[in-house]
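Trying the structure run again after the queue cleared.
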Amino acid sequence: MSVEFLITSLIIVVSPGTGALYTIATGLSRGFRASLVASFGCTLGIVPHMAAAIAGLAAILHTSAVAFETFKYLGVAYLLYLAWSTLRERGTLKVETKEEETNHSAARITGTAILINFLNPKLSIFFLAFLPQFVPAHTANSLPRMLELSAVFMLMTFVVFAAYGLFAAAVRDHVISRPKVLAWMRRTFAAAFVGLGFQLALASR
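Done. C-alpha cells:
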C-alpha cells in the first residue's frame, strides 16, 4: 500500500461533503450511536461506485450524457429534499428524545446515508480515474489490488466519518439546550444541502 494512496485518500475523505454533513447532523440530533450508523451507511454508499469503477461500468456515465444527467438530477432532488425536511424539523436535524432515539429505525438512517452517496455520479467517475492510478501497469490481474485499495478507502471513510459523528455527539447537549442555536444550525445544514445540490447540478462529465 503506497503512502501516496493513503495520503490522497485521507485528503479526499476528510474533505467535507454530503456524507460528512449528514453524519454530523445525525450526531447532533440523535447521538453517537446513530452517527455510527450514518457513517456505516455512507461507507456502504461508496460500494456501488467502486464496483462500477472496477467493472468499467462508470465509463457509461462518463460517455452517456443522458445517463449522467439523469443520475445527477436524482441526486440534486434528494439533496433538496433533505434541505426541506431539515427545515421542517422532521428530517436530518430533528432532535429526538431518548425513547425516540432507541426506537428510531437504524435502517432508515442507513438508507438515507446510502442514498446520499449513491446518487452522486461524480463518485463513479472519480473512482474510475482514481483507483487505476495506484495499480501497477505490469500487474497481471488488477482485480485483487483494486479490491484491496477499495477496502482501505472504505475503512478510512468509516473511521473519519465516525470521528465527525463523535465530535458532533460531544457538543450535542450544548446545541439542543439552546433553541436559537438549534434553529441556526438547522438553517445552516439546510443551506449546505442546497449548496451541495447546486454544486452537483453544475457538475459535468
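Residues 3-7+16-201 form one domain. Worth checking whether this holds up in the mutant runs.
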